[in-house]
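Record 1 of the preview.
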Amino acid sequence: MTGKETAAPYRRERARSAEDTNELVGPPVLEQGFKVKALRDVRNDGTYPGRPVGDFLIREGDVGYVISIGTYLQMYYIYAVDFYEKRVVVGMRARELQVMDAHCNDPQ
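->
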């Protein structure tokens, strides 16, 4: 690498944009217990303790379970997803997740 070349910084999405609508006017899209798949990589933005900033927490395609539902900026639902194989719990938005099994915790 020459002096002018640097490693590409990871992209950080803005929390809010003018096109976003308030998700809290309706019910959450996901429920506790849903089995979901990550639709994108997630890196540590400095808010995940014990891991370096920029470190991959999960990768696209990793599977986890919704363990709780919260809100952010009084506008968005945030789903705490336990990616058990990675031993990581990450807060994600519904648009970043794909439901794999909505009935995995229903009684048989």
